[in-house]
Amino acid sequence: MPSAPSRAPAPNAAAHAERPVEPVLRILPLGSGLVLIGLGLGLAFVALRMRQGGGLS
To answer: Which is nearest to 46 in space by CA: 33, 32, 38?
Structure first.
């Protein structure tokens, strides 16, 4: 009776075992960060103009 050849583990099983258990942080693309910085600067300039001009009028 011939012995059965040993089977190597499937590539998917090895890749699945090496995946991190912790959730991966999603980093915003560079464009969204620049948009947020622009909105913050715009809000700061509007606040300064309102402060100097005495509010909305």
So the answer is: 38
Q: What is the pLDDT of residues 35-54, one digit of tens each?
A: 999 999 999 999 999 998 87
Tokens of 19: 């995946």
Kindly report each contact of residues 34-42 with a partner whose C-beta sits within 8 Å and lies 24 or more positions away, as own/partner: none
Place of tokens 């600067």: 41
Question: Full-prediction pTM beyond 0.85?
Answer: no
d(CA 38, CA 35): 5
Structure tokens at 17: 């075992």
DSSP string, 1-57: -PPPPPPPPPHHHHHHHTS-SSPPPPPPPHHHHHHHHHHHHHHHHHHHHHHHHTS--
